[in-house]
Amino acid sequence: MKALEEYVRSIPDFPEQGIIFRDVTSVLQDADGLRLAVDTMQEKVKDLEFDVVAGPESRGFIFGTPIAYNTHKPFVLIRKKGKLPCETVERSYDLEYGQATIEMHKDSIKPGQRVLVVDDLIATGGTTEAMIKLIESLGGVVVGVVVLMELAGLKGREKIRDYRLEAAIVYPGK
After folding, report:
1. What angle do CA 98, 11, 61 make, to 5 degrees?
2. pTM of whole model > 0.90?
3. How far is CA 153 from CA 65, 127, 130, in A?
4. 10 Å Cβ neighbour count for 147?
């Protein structure tokens, strides 16, 4: 079997000159790559005790759900504003060009529950930081974050330095 990094397609100069885009779809489109990604992420947090797995749409759903299934834990959806049908709590945060708002059902996390956050990528850390604050607003305790890829050059780890962050692949640049 190939190394996990070999399943990630790197696309130079996308979305702009000088950027190397790390394409997760090439991992998802290969059965071995997908299995290796999920297994590697899960292995990174095998020592953590958690009650709930939470992840953002859409790729957090893709990687978080099998980890929740494998560990027999519930999976909590974190979605863009306006996508959830019941009473929600929300958190807005800054993006490079604008703002975004994410939501969770108000009853999705109970006070004191230990939460593992799963996503495909951490770059600047804005989305991850917003997810953590949203979970904590419901009384949840974030015990760790696991991602498939970390773009270390964008320093997202610094925004969540008080939390354990595990990445299956770390790219030094942007």
Report:
1. 60
2. yes
3. 28, 16, 20
4. 26
Cβ atoms of 77 and 85 within 8 Å: the answer is no
Q: How far, in Å, CA of 110 to CA of 84, rounded?
A: 18
Per residue in 72-92, pLDDT (tens digit) is 999 999 999 999 999 999 999
15-60 pLDDT tens trace: 888 888 999 999 999 999 999 999 999 999 999 999 999 999 999 9
Q: What one-letter code names the amino acid at 61? A: F
Q: Phi then psi for 129, rounded to 5 degrees?
A: -60, -40
d(CA 113, CA 61): 19
Known catalytic residues are: 59, 96
Neighbours of 58 (CB within 10 A): 10
